[in-house]
Amino acid sequence: MRCVLVINPAAGGGLPAKVVGDVTDHLRAVCEVRTVVATDPAGTEAAVHRAVEDRADVLAVVGGDGIAHLAVQACAESATALAIIPAGTGNDLARSLDIPREPVAAARAAARAIAAGARRHVDLGKIAGTGWFATVLCAGFDAKVNARANRMRWPRGQRRYDIALVRELLGLRTGSVRVETEHGVLDTEATLVAVANTSYYGGGIPICPDAVDDDGQFDVTVVGRVPRRELVRILPSLRTGRHVDHPAVSTLRAKNVRLGGAHGWLAYADGEPQARLPLTIRCAPGALSVVCATRGGPGAEEL
């Protein structure tokens, strides 16, 4: 079994550099490992694509959602399975896959899964003309929060998103959004729209709490036009997923989604900027093979 281990040493305030020895030891106990240290996005992108082109059995990445997003671009619809060792700020893809959030524990769990020969096939979102995403695509208020959080260097962890959220509330704006699916059209004045393959974004916020990563469709959450004071009341319920019960929130499910609107909101997916609306998204069932901490359940098969 051949594994390429790609490390982003800057993620999580330098956490990967502190644990790389232990992570590598766990993986080397079960497979042949080649380690690549990528110091910038361009180097990371080249490394993950080279691993897949060289037909590595497993691509393991150490870092946050940024390196996971780049790895998804390489592994999508390939025979290379992705193993995530979370060491970043949000770690939303790892959370959705029930991977331990402590990197050495995640490496230990990945090694056990590799030794057992287990992988799962999960869905991905495909943005026409752009790329793939594994978690959530968002536009509007939440995308602006994401952009601000990405620019911040302090504090680490969930507090970064919380502070970014409060600051973006001061400039809250809504926009006319059209959500087109195979089931119909929703025209509304919206605060935000999220198209989800998995439940979480923003460091553990279940924006689409019922999203399932292998059901062949997206969950979509649209928060309509609400005054700033009312949005402040809704925000605490985001942590529990109860925001979907608010009368200003609409939810739907679809295999294909087109988001339009004259305001040209910039969409973010997996925490990374993508393209401005309008854009078209389709669900690609089983497009990604992942090495998970646990074995069994729908989609499990032998490596």
From TrEMBL:
Names of the cofactor(s): Mg(2+)
GO cellular component, one term: plasma membrane
Family matches, as InterPro entries: ATP-NAD_kinase_N, Diacylglycerol/lipid_kinase, Diacylglycerol_kinase_cat_dom, Lipid_Phosphate_FormReg, NAD/diacylglycerol_kinase_sf, YegS/DAGK_C
Xref: SUPFAM superfamilies: NAD kinase/diacylglycerol kinase-like
Keywords attached to this entry: ATP-binding, Kinase, Lipid biosynthesis, Lipid metabolism, Magnesium, Metal-binding, Nucleotide-binding, Phospholipid biosynthesis, Phospholipid metabolism, Transferase
Residue ranges of every copy of the DAGKc domain listed in the record: 1-131
Gene3D superfamilies tied to this protein: 2.60.200.40, Probable inorganic polyphosphate/atp-NAD kinase, domain 1
Coiled-coil residue spans: none
Molecular-function annotations in GO: ATP binding; ATP-dependent diacylglycerol kinase activity; metal ion binding
Cited PANTHER family: LIPID KINASE YEGS (PTHR12358:SF106), SPHINGOSINE KINASE (PTHR12358)
NCBIfam families (alphabetical): YegS/Rv2252/BmrU family lipid kinase
UniProt name for this protein: YegS/Rv2252/BmrU family lipid kinase
Native organism taxonomy: Bacteria, Bacillati, Actinomycetota, Actinomycetes, Pseudonocardiales
